[in-house]
């Protein structure tokens, strides 16, 4: 599980870039990885996606998350309702997903999947 962070993926901090390399190695051996907010952004960056400041500015609050079909059938997420509320705050998002992501099981409704919860295999 890769959680949120006060750091920004676009800062390219040494520890963050090392974590991105570890994520690439983990993906190469098909280790399931769960990323939330910063973790989602770092996964996307590690796999070739584009991360940057959210086009509509900072998002803050309790917002609705919608499970996509892949998430609803995933054994790690199947106990969640199809739609649920989550608290979040972030300034950056995944602007362009990586090529051929393995799984994008949840998304923010009516946004650019800015703070998606992702399991990539």
Break the fold down into its secondary structure elements and pairings.
Elements: H1 14-28, E1 33-36, H2 38-46, E2 50-53, E3 59-67, H3 69-72, E4 83-90, E5 92-96, E6 106-108, E7 117-120
Antiparallel strand pairs: 1-7, 2-5, 3-4, 3-6
Helix pairs in contact: 1-2
Task: Explain how this protein is built.
By secondary structure, the chain is of the alpha+beta class. It is globular, with a radius of gyration of 13 Å. It has three helices and seven strands; from the N terminus they run H-E-H-E-E-H-E-E-E-E. The longest helix is centred in the N-terminal third of the chain and has 15 residues, at 14-28. The strands form three sheets. A three-stranded antiparallel β-sheet has the order 4-3-6. A two-stranded antiparallel ribbon has the order 1-7. 23% of the residues lie in helices and 31% in strands. Mean pLDDT is 80; it is low at 108-117. The chain has a single domain (9-120), classed as Rossmann fold.
């Amino acid at each position: 599980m890769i959680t949120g962070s006060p750091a920004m993926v676009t800062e390219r901090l040494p520890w963050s870039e090392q974590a991105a390399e570890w994520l690439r190695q983990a993906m190469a051996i098909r280790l399931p990885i769960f990323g939330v907010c910063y973790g989602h952004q770092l996964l996307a960056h590690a796999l070739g996606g584009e991360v940057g400041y959210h086009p509509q500015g900072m998002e803050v609050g309790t917002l609705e998350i919608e499970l996509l079909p892949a998430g609803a059938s995933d054994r790690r997420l199947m106990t969640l309702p199809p739609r649920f509320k989550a608290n979040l705050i972030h300034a950056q998002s995944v602007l362009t997903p990586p090529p051929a992501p393995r799984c994008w099981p949840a998304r923010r409704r009516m946004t650019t999947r800015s703070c998606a919860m992702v399991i990539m295999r």
